[in-house]
Amino acid sequence: MKHKAIDKWIAGFLKQQPPRAKSIVMTVFGDAIAPRGGAVWLGSLIALMDALKINDRLVRTSVFRLTEESWLHANRSGRRSQYSLTSQGAKRFARAHQRVYAPASSAWDGRWIFVIAPPALSSSSDRNQLKKELLWEGFGLIAPGVFVHPGSKEAAVSEILQRTGNADHVFVSAATSLSDITSRPLTDLLTHCWQLEGVIKGYADFVKRFAPLLSLLQEESDLTDQQAFVIRTLLIHAFRRVQLHDPQLPAELLRADWAGVTAYDVCKSIYQIVTPQADAYVALTLATEQDMVLPIAKEFAQRFNTEG
């Protein structure tokens, strides 16, 4: 039975690559909770995480830490607790959503965005936070306080500067190569600022792990709703971990056989297969503690072009 084969695949994944509780909680919030309003009762979250073999103690510790880090806000009603995304957390999840679920754009106008943060204009903690956020967004570090990325990143940069309080402390500009001046081309920054070997290996490992699962799912299967939820969560969790290290450079700056394309296609195919049942499982679990389960918001309805 395919049912048992799916269970075997899930058990093997959890044994070989057991996810950290806090990180997998974030994945569940981003993939299952944020699309339905961004709030969940603790009991429902514990039930969802139990399917992923994360016990209630680890769930409680994880949401406590995420609350301390301003990702989540706790609302108490008697002895019950509900956790919702903060406005800051929602914005950060929105940025992550675009990275994970949307295909990379191949269009590039040849512009590079530079962010320059002079040491004297902000505190060391502000600079460190800015550096962390820009590197996560895929910017490369040319020199201390000088960051660069090819392509359109205006919206992301604006949100980062506002949230980190650095809008008045840094310089942001766009640049292109000057054809009438002899110099090294800006494209040489690819090898100077980004180490893509690890990203390529990450994508290759992802395909090696999930391609057999795709073949299994494409056959006739008696997949359960819970299995679908677990598979989708592990899928996005693994894909997101690779994406965090991918600077998402324009396609025309990458090699023609860029490994991220194959990985995205595998992820998309599995996601589309399991999503109807996974969504049903999430809705049923949330309904145990709330009278009305919100439908999936329109901005999330086209994850990998799936129907909401």
Summarize the entry for a quick read.
With 308 residues, the protein is an alpha+beta fold. 53% of the residues lie in helices and 11% in strands.
List the main descriptive attributes of the protein structure presented here:
about 300 residues; alpha+beta; Alpha-Beta Plaits; four-stranded antiparallel β-sheet; three-stranded antiparallel β-sheet; about 10% strand
Alpha carbon gyration radius = 21 Å
Query: What order do the strands of the largest sheet run in, or round the barrel if closed?
Result: 5-6-4-7
What is the arithmetic mean of pLDDT?
A: 88
Tally the helices: 11
Strand proportion: 5-15%
Write down the CATH class of the domain at 112-175: Alpha Beta
Q: CATH architecture of the domain at 112-175, please?
A: 2-Layer Sandwich
Biggest β-sheet description? 4 strands, antiparallel
Kindly report how far apart the N and C termini lie: 30 Å
Which overall shape is indicated by the principal axes computed on the Cα atoms? globular
The strand count comes to: 7
Order of helices and strands: HHEHHEEHEHEEHEHHHH
Q: Which segments are poorly predicted (pLDDT under 50) over 5 or more consecutive residues?
A: none
Helix-residue proportion = 40-55%
Q: Given the helix and strand composition, which structural class is it?
A: alpha+beta
